[in-house]
Amino acid sequence: MNLNRHLLLIGIALVSSLAACGGGGAGEVASSSSTFYYNDPDGLNTLDPARIGARSPWQIGGQIFIGLVGLDSALRPIPQIAKSWTVSPDGLRWTFNLRGDVFFADDASFSGGKGRAVTAEDVRYSFERILDPATSSSGVWVFSGKVRGAAEHFEARRTDSVAGAGHVPGFQVVDDTTFVIELEKPFPPFLSILSMPYCYIVPREAVEKYGDEFFRNPVGAGAFRLAEWSPDQRIVLVRNERYYERDAGGARLPYLDSVVVSFVKDVKTEYLEYKEGRLDAVGTIDPAFTDEVFAADAKSLAPTLEGHHLHATPAMSVEYYGFLLDSTRPGAKGSPLAGNRHLRRAINYAIDRDAIVRYVLKGRAAVGVNGPIPPGTPGFSNVAGFRFDRELARRLLDSAGYPGGKGLPPLVLQMGHSERSASVAEALQDQLATVGITLELRQVNSPQHREMYLAGKLPFFRANWMADYPDAENFLSLFYSEYAPPAGNNTTGFRNARFDSLYRAALGPSMTIEQRSALYNEAERIILDQSPWVILYYSVIQRLTQPWISGYAVDPLDRLDLTRVRKVSL
Fold first, then answer.
1. For 477-514, what is the HEC assignment?
2. What is the pLDDT of residue 95?
3. 49-216: which CATH number, 3.90.76.10, 3.40.50.720, 3.40.50.800, 3.40.50.150?
4. What CATH class has 315-540?
5. Are 451 and 315 in contact (CB under 8 A)?
6. Rounded distance, CA 537 to CA 425, Å?
7. Residues paired with residue 35 on neighbouring β-strands, in sequence order
8. DSSP class of residue 272?
9. How far is CA 110 from CA 61, 135, 210, in A?
10. In the chain, what is the greatest distance between 2 CA atoms, to the nearest angstrom?
């Protein structure tokens, strides 16, 4: 059987079964269902906030959990569990006043199965849990080096659990509704950083009841709660009846009764299901459907989709291939890429990024002609990145010790399962072959791929970074030496003393955005010179929703907020 047809039949059977189980279906979703249906081709491996480091768990987890603060549509910090906050003049002491009407969702982990009020002790527990090595959180960097005593607490817990049994000095519970955070030094984006998934608040009772299975039994105070999770098939969320928020008219949110997410990996199937009305939104448009979906300008919808809604915005996101540079990690052993800067730069110059965006991505991305900070990000430095220069690539390959590619073993590039990623990689494979570099491609499921490159097992890997919070610092933190895993997301193991110095200087409390941007410009030039990444393109977020969907929006962080989404009669 043709593979695509086989996938299509599987997908149709799957989503039809979702409709049967969730209420509604191919003709009914529009008119009678208060369930929001969408597909996530990347799959889901965790719903533990301590380990949420990818788009899928962020978007789904964002329906279940909330933090002290959130971000509004302009990406400015707004109250959530904290109703207000103050900061000392030196920028070091932050005092948060909590609401008294925020409750965890009902769950068997609570007495009588009824969710209780969120308190300041829950905030401290959630934050200190990130700093417990037993949690295996990838978010240690959020607090380490920022909050007073956080780094020492993590190290003490890592080496001696008895010595690390106390609390972090910088996390202070004053009373049930007052929580204080003391920083070691001012950190300009600190309030925004508290909106990240790592900073979602969880109850001790649920973590202790479910133990190692908490990642699949999440309990939070968000608009929805988990009802069902069938790995690789679907997840079902239902309204959290105890959710605190109301709309301007006093109606309790959310409007939806439930959310059903399927995990069909084939994006062709995903779009066909949307086209048949079985999905309310679609987030990935396969290039095969570009002409059917988009008008000639690639920025508006074709006439055949009249009434549908296109939600588009430039993303604070960069798509890249990473080279593992840390020779102590398993993936770098024997890799010609780890210690050969000329080879990494040769690869960068051999790539025609403009052609990839124009012909493979059909113009639905911005060419990666700058550094790792995407255009539009606060602090963007406008540094000039790599241009396509095949002859320079060949000369650099000579300097690398592989004239014409002779003696260079095939390079293996691994990526997650994605037709879009595969198409881009195949174009890159052809381009590198013209200078004598042989590239072999390998695909594994996306959660496994992420786990492998975080563990330092891959010498050459595809990844992307969507900003956790709206500040350029978030992108440069990926190269800060102190944030190598498990302390952070420096997955290439990049180390450079001058870069580290610039990174720290840019966080000075008296720095203006313009001054920080100038420091970032120099820092990005160091990154481009050393080439731990191949920067491919900057994403453009494009989502389609059905005519009956209202209240849906996208933003440059690619968050998914279904709190105010509803289905309307046409």
1. HHHCHHHCCCCCCCCCCCCCHHHHHHHHHCCCCCCCHH
2. 98
3. 3.90.76.10
4. alpha beta
5. no
6. 13
7. 258
8. H
9. 20, 21, 12
10. 72
| Ranges of CATH 3.90.76.10 domains, the chain | 49-216
For 237, counting Cβ atoms within 10 Å of its Cβ (0-12 exposed, 13-18 middle, 19+ buried), the class is: buried
Residues with Cβ < 8 Å from 500, sequence gap 6 or more?
A: 480, 481, 482
Using alpha carbons, select from 473, 471, 507 the residue that is nearest to residue 488.
473
- Percent of the chain with pLDDT strictly greater than 70: 94
Q: What is the mean pLDDT of residues 18-27?
A: 39
Q: At what angle do helices 390-399 and 341-349 cross, to 10 degrees?
A: 170
Give the span between the Cα atoms of 354 and 71, in whole angstroms.
Answer: 33
Between 404 and 160, the more confident residue is 404
| CATH 3.40.190.10 intervals, the chain | 3-45+219-311+543-567
Residue 17: pLDDT above 50?
no
Three-class SS state of 305:
helix
Sequence ranges of the chain with CATH classification 3.10.105.10:
315-540
Q: Is there a contact between 224 and 562 (Cβ–Cβ < 8 Å)?
A: yes
Q: What is the mean pLDDT of residues 2-17?
A: 39
Percent of the chain with pLDDT over 90: 75
Tokens coding 279: 């999905």
Instruction: Quickly name the fold that domain 3-45+219-311+543-567 has.
Output: D-Maltodextrin-Binding Protein; domain 2 (3.40.190)
The model's pLDDT over 467-508, given as tens digits with 9 standing for 90+, comes to 888 889 999 999 999 988 877 889 999 999 999 999 999 988
